[in-house]
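Q: Hi! First time doing this. I have a protein sequence and I read that you can turn it into a structure. Is that right? Here it is:
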Amino acid sequence: MGVDLGDLVEREEIDFADLNDEEIAIDAMNTLYQFLSIIRQRDGTPLKDSSGNITSHLSGLFYRNINLLEHNIRPVFVFDGEMPELKEKETSKRRKKREEAREEWKRLKEEGKVDEAYSKATQSSKLTGDMIEEAKKLLDAMGLPYIQAPSEGEAQAAFMTTEEAPGKIYAVGSQDWDCLLFGADRMVKNLTTRKTRKTSGGGKKEISTERIELQDVLEQLEITREKLVWMGVLMGTDFNPDGIKGIGPKTALKLVKEYEDFDELLEDEKVEWESDKDPYRIRDFFLNPPVVEEGYSFGEPDEEKIKEILVDEHDFSEDRVESGLEDLEKALESRQSGLGSFV
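A: Yes, that's right. Below is the predicted 3D structure, encoded as structure tokens:
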């Protein structure tokens, strides 16, 4: 999931109340993978309809978005566009790992090792083009906007938080630190995840929503955003996942502080570049990614369309969907009565 700055960066734990009346650009692919990973039966089997189609992503989108709206948080989803050539190798590697995890999950499930099977199942999630289109249909029906990025959704979402974007948005909702390298003013972690997570020992761990400000990160580390990108190049990103052997967050930070020129940094004896990807291309992609200046608007939910998608097409419980729609209606009524029109 890109560069990991967790050991170096202080994170502010927040409540949903701290995000009241804010619009959040959510990395759609990242979030859909979350739903496919965690919304499963005890043995790791994803939710499915009577035709065998996986529905975990739709369940997550419907119920988690209602939860956000109930807290007066307005999500704007951003979908990936064309995959950068820089990322193709890493994507192939991830696909192979998912396939291996899927085979291991099947074996463990047959052996009755439920907890181990569930762990492997969460690593085997596959997001298809049909699932993405289904997600967009459901968002449309719920009146929630989405943006189609020209390339990396993370980069588009990050751009939407900056002053250059039309209608500056509050933050990026993502688990991926790369959005800071792309220049997001602010990111919110664990926005759409469960608030508890299973541990390897069978227990549960509390998960807090966290807010990270780019300016605070740069001040804590005493570097510029460009040098933050340099750190990513050294440590490893989605475009060069292995990074430089022996260089972790602390060493990377020390190195980028020693140099004012990227050429000189790459000539340091500790920087043995073995990736077949050009480090300059990686740096430049983070600093100037393809984005679009596109507006968006919220609409009114279409309850009949929502029921058609969830109940008629995918066998969701009509009672549960009706209950969810009542919660959605109450959330929107509360906003309109207190803060003006949702639209």
